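Run log // design_07
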């Protein structure tokens, strides 16, 4: 029973999606149309991107980049900006959850080595907001963007025209919050721990090697990163519809076999978060079935019509923005509004974006006495950012 409860807590969204799919199957019994529910292209892209990001996590590539940047800071404001902007810009390409999985533990280490634990909550809250807002700029920044971009058929230029203005405003808001944060000089002796050649770098390198299951020499790690970067380029080509998704899957699996065979690293597909893929599949079944129930279609269509952004934001606060995108996209064709609404919907409550739970879990595990203060600060700052950006999206920026 304890194992079941623990699994339900860990995979709450997946369990809800499976229950919804099962309920819908009572209304629409399985038939030949079920196979048409699946968006195989989105599933293939998600699988490929998650696989590649697992590879970069194992090599410690992003932590190496972060250390190189941190070796050049001299004040706390500079440190704050680097830590937050790493999440903002990296999330555009490596997804918001991978950015937080990579940089939040790194940030905790840096602040502990620097004796700046009292700044932990403000920095990590802003990193979480930056990851959620930065990821909305590109189709590969988060799962809902990848899905909505895929099903809408819009071009990359159209996507950037929708999310570009909001992303620019988000950047300015985050930059302003960082600049107006208190500033003070950092101890030069403590800064040595942040340099690539310092003690922290050595520890992180060993950790990365241990994560792959083997002690990989530095030169081989560079070759691994080069191969992973090539696979990521193929993923982008598939996202932009230059190559087909079956070709991408073959290329990624071949690359993973090469990494495992030549570099003796873990077989990356074994590390993929398959619960996310199963969540997508369950929601595809639910949406497909409910789309064949006329009364439900009329009801949800009336709610959504002309109110897509507000509805997406509200739904995201309860079920998080990825399920909201999957559910509501089946009943509205205004994909621009759905993209804006589900991205802004990642702000607000702790569960509005599942990526936000990553930061909270790190705080809860390492600083259990600070959980309440973190949650309070997180909620206030998120709601403030949400209010400003929602007002701008509804009345200032045309879509």
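design_07 sequence
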């Amino acid at each position: 029973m304890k194992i079941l409860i623990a699994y339900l807590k860990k995979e709450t969204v997946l369990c809800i999606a499976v229950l919804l799919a099962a309920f819908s199957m009572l209304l629409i019994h399985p038939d030949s149309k079920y196979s048409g529910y699946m968006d195989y292209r989105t599933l293939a892209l998600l699988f490929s991107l998650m696989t590649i990001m697992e590879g970069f996590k194992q090599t410690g590539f992003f932590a190496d980049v972060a250390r190189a940047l941190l070796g050049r800071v001299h004040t706390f404001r500079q440190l704050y900006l680097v830590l937050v902007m790493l999440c903002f810009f990296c999330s555009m390409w490596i997804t918001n959850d991978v950015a937080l999985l990579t940089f939040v533990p790194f940030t905790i280490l840096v602040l502990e080595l620097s004796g700046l634990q009292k700044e932990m909550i403000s920095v990590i809250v802003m990193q979480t907001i930056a990851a959620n807002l930065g990821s909305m700029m590109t189709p590969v920044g988060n799962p809902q963007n990848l899905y909505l971009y895929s099903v809408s058929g819009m071009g990359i230029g159209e996507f950037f025209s929708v999310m570009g203005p909001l992303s620019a405003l988000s950047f300015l808001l985050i930059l302003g919050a960082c600049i107006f944060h208190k500033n003070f000089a950092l101890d030069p002796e403590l800064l040595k721990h942040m340099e690539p050649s310092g003690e922290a770098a050595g520890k992180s390198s060993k950790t990365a090697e241990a994560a792959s299951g083997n002690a990989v020499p530095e030169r081989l790690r560079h070759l691994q990163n080069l191969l992973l970067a090539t696979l990521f380029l193929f993923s982008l080509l598939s996202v932009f519809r230059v190559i087909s998704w079956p070709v991408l899957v073959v290329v990624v699996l071949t690359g993973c076999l090469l990494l495992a065979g030549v570099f003796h690293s873990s077989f990356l597909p074994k590390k993929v978060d398959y619960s996310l893929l199963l969540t997508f599949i369950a929601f595809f079944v639910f949406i497909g079935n409910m789309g064949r129930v006329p009364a439900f279609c009329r009801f949800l269509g009336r709610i959504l019509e002309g109110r897509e952004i507000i509805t997406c934001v509200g739904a995201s606060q309860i079920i998080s923005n990825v399920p909201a995108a999957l559910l509501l996209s089946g009943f509205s064709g205004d994909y621009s509004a759905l993209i804006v609404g589900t991205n802004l919907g990642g702000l607000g409550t702790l569960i509005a974006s599942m990526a936000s739970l990553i930061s909270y879990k790190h705080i809860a595990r390492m600083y259990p006495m600070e959980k309440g203060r973190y949650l309070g600060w997180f909620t206030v700052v998120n709601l403030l950012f949400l209010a400003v950006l929602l007002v701008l999206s509804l009345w200032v920026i045309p879509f």
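Confidence is low (pLDDT under 50) at residues 196-214.
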